[in-house]
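Sanity check. The docking grid for 2'-deoxycytidine-5'-monophosphate depends on where the pocket ends up, so I'm generating a full predicted complex first rather than guessing from homology. Inputs follow.
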Amino acid sequence: MSKLPTHIPVIAIDGPSASGKGSVAELVAEALGFHYLDSGAIYRIVAYASKEQRIAWNQAEAIAALVSQLSIQFVHGEILLNGANISMLVRSEEMGRGASEVAVHPAVRNALLDLQKSFRKAPGLVGDGRDMASVVFPDAILKIFLTAGVEIRAQRRFEQLRNRGLDANYETILQDLQTRDLRDSQRSAAPLKQVQDALLLDTSDKTIQQAVDFVLDAYQECLNSYKKT
Ligand code: DC
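Predicted complex below; grid placement will be based on this.
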């Protein structure tokens, strides 16, 4: 029987915007008692901080320099930037767009690598984003590419915003998601893609619970395969 890898296990869940990967990743982490990294939130924080400092989202070097001065903390699910709670502010569609724009710059991505890696703590981590499996945690024990059709994602986002009592327009959301999908998957630095050893999880006709069960079963299979070999 081969031993389980000695390093702290990571489950990497990558996928496009509004695919539901955040909800799935959080529930998987809860079920396993693992830590959770919402890497998209980090890019959103950077977009927000840049705007606050009046730095345009295309200014790669200035944003990378700003990153080194930021104090980013996640406390009980809340996002603190330099001590201030900005959880709601970074969830806006504007900051989603900004995150996608600042994320194209290799200098910004490099400046955020150590922070993301620091979330890897015992007993394990579930990380969600675009490059969890390809760049940040290439040695993840389990890699999932979680996606859904773009119209379905737009409809889910639309309902989510409506339920929060926010103004929402389906067509605008759909267009925005298509633009972000294109930018996130066609950039040269760490583009969104399904890596070769990732399992595909299409949630178009799945509930969140079914998607969570898929990941938990796949994780259990990983552990079993270590025990068998
Ligand atoms: O997951 P999200 O929608 O909160 O992410 C917002 C943007 O941040 C996304 O459009 C691209 C960028 N991002 C990234 O480039 N790499 C990650 N690991 C996570 C997010």
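Relevant for the grid: The two ends are 5 Å apart (CA to CA).
Also worth noting: The domain at 10-228 is CATH 3.40.50.300 (Rossmann fold).
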